[in-house]
Specification:
The chain is α/β, with parallel strands linked by helices. The chain folds into 2 domains: about 230 residues, no CATH class; about 80 residues, no CATH class. Helices cover about 50% and strands about 10% of the residues. The protein has 17 helices and 5 strands. A 5-stranded parallel β-sheet has the order 2-3-4-1-5, sandwiched between helices. Helix 12 links the parallel strand 3 and strand 4. It is elongated.
């Protein structure tokens, strides 16, 4: 069998069906208007000391998860930060928990990603300023002491991590008593207060991190939660924004479907949260031109050498016909069709992929149209 790279002039099959978890494999192709909206929103949060809630919505497979992972890449965030003349944001992507303790699950997702040794090293030269700043955050002395211990190199980093995880017994806890930590974290209010305080400290005066960016993916899963959990999530989002008044950018990725439309949103996202939404970024179904621009840019990224036909190994007529035959579909469905067409052609050693090849495999590629 001929070598894939030599035959198709591509390093690999570029049509991923799910976003890569490897940052190096994440690329952005086409859809420059959407990309620009995210860049401007992130840059605004980097520059200005305020907290913002943004709702991203679109159909399944429209690119919301890809956007979250792409803009979670350090090199992308550094580029935007450099443009704004500020440090890189502290960013993470988490999925909406489906269990009975959603706030604890979100809290744990953040703590899992927290490298205490790295934070202490980064903030070493302003540790005194951070300690004074913590005294100004709220009136909960216990939470203040927890935050101080997190930045205090005298407290073993594994010890404080164990405490944050809730894995300390009564004997272990006594080792932290001298630092004013006398009890464990137990309630949702504790978890939200620790996170809000942590985020405020990490972005203190925008000296080390310019802002905190949290992407909550699959937010539509709130539909499967009971009323108590829905209440908790709404309260958590509201409290997190209110108690981190500066430098928090919270993205909610929401998939619209027959079960969740814009009109249904109010049943799950309360007015107290909706009123805090500053922007809505829509992932609309792509037009024919959108698909073709996306395809050209994607193929260019994975191209080996050069090609006179910007759609190679596909004939442009194949692309036009595929778009027409599929009708209004998501970007994921478009990728699925091209991925399968490329794989079938590769197995049978057919290149270029012209109309004759397309007609041969059409029934398999457009199985849902038969």
């Amino acid at each position: 069998m001929a070598d894939f790279k030599d035959t198709y002039k591509l390093t690999t099959n570029p049509f991923r069906l799910t976003p890569s978890i490897n940052p190096d494999e994440l690329v952005w192709a086409g859809f420059n208007d959407v990309k620009t909206k995210f860049e401007k929103r992130i840059e605004r949060s980097i520059r200005i000391p305020n907290s913002t809630l943004v709702l991203n919505w679109g159909e399944y497979g429209s690119g919301k998860t890809h956007a979250a992972r792409f803009f979670n890449k350090k090199e992308e965030l550094k580029t935007i930060g450099d443009k704004a003349g500020r440090p890189i944001p502290y960013s993470m992507v988490i999925s909406l928990p489906k269990g009975k303790d959603p706030i604890y699950s979100i809290y744990m997702s953040v703590i899992d990603k927290l490298n205490i040794e790295e934070v202490r090293t980064k903030f070493h030269d302003i540790s005194g300023d951070i300690k004074s700043y913590i005294d100004s955050i709220g009136s909960n002395i216990h939470i203040q002491n927890v935050l101080k211990a997190l930045f205090n190199t005298e407290v073993g980093h594994l010890n404080i991590k164990k405490y944050l995880y809730g894995n300390m017994n009564a004997t272990d806890l006594k080792s932290l008593n001298e630092y004013g930590i006398l009890r464990s974290l137990k309630e949702d209010n504790d978890y939200s207060a620790v996170l809000a305080g942590l985020f405020s400290c990490l972005t203190y005066d925008k000296k080390k991190y310019s802002c905190i960016i949290i992407w909550i993916d699959e937010f539509e899963d709130i539909m499967v939660l009971n009323n108590s959990s829905i209440d908790k999530i709404n309260s958590f989002v509201r409290e997190l924004l209110d108690n981190t008044p500066n430098n928090l950018l919270l993205f909610l990725n929401l998939t619209l479907s027959a079960l969740m439309t814009e009109e249904d949103l109010g049943s799950y996202v309360y007015e107290s949260v909706k009123s805090r939404i500053k922007e809505k970024i829509s992932f609309d179904l792509p037009s024919s031109n959108d698909f073709k621009e996306y395809l050209k840019e994607l193929l260019k990224h994975f191209r080996v050498g050069s090609a006179d036909n910007l759609y190679f190994p596909f004939d442009e007529s194949v692309i036009d016909t595929l778009i027409s035959d599929q009708g209004n579909v998501s970007l994921r469905r478009f990728n699925e069709s091209l991925s399968l067409l490329l794989e079938l052609s590769d197995m049978d050693g057919k290149c270029p992929i012209n109309m004759e090849v397309f007609e041969e495999y059409k029934s398999e590629i457009l199985w849902d149209k038969n």
